[in-house]
Amino acid sequence: VHLAESGGGWVETGGSLKLSCAADEDTFSRDCMGWFRQAPGKGPEDIATIDYDGKINYAESVKGRFTLSKDNANKALYLQMNSLKTEDTAMYYCAAESKVICFLGLLSYMTRRGQGTNVTVSS
User: Which of 116, 57, 52 is closest to 90 using CA atoms?
Assistant: First the structure.
């Protein structure tokens, strides 16, 4: 398993969750990593990317509420989600790729992705 997400669950509107993504060494060294989500009946939506130099980009829908971080010692990617809304309900995936320019819109096409962790936000 190259990527494994955890930390999903059920939370009320306004609550917080922190997702984790554990990576193997090869995957963690890839040029671009990030999180995307897919809600039931909808297409994938990229949330945040981080490139090899640590530059982070966020989708407008989560900017100011979600924070992506990378833990080099533990080879993990995190997504701190605050002020959650019902529209944040989705399956959340982490993904990684090499030899790409890191930008939103690419994550769901990456060859390495985890199995996902489900987030449900209830009002």
Answer: 116
- Residues 6+ away with beta carbon under 8 Å from 90: 37, 38, 39, 40, 42, 45, 118, 119
pLDDT 10s digits, 87-98: 999 999 999 999
The DSSP letter of residue 35 is E
Res 61: pLDDT: 97
CA-to-CA dists, residue 20 to 47, 70, 114, angstroms = 14, 10, 11
Amino acid in position 109: Y
Q: Quick one: which of 31, 32, 7, 6 has its CA closest to 17?
A: 7
**Read out DSSP for 50-77?**
EETT--EEE-TTTTTTEEEEEETTTTEE
* Structural tokens at position 48: 């945040």
Contact between residue 63 and residue 104 where contact means Cβ atoms under 8 Å apart: no
Which two tokens mark 108? 């769901």
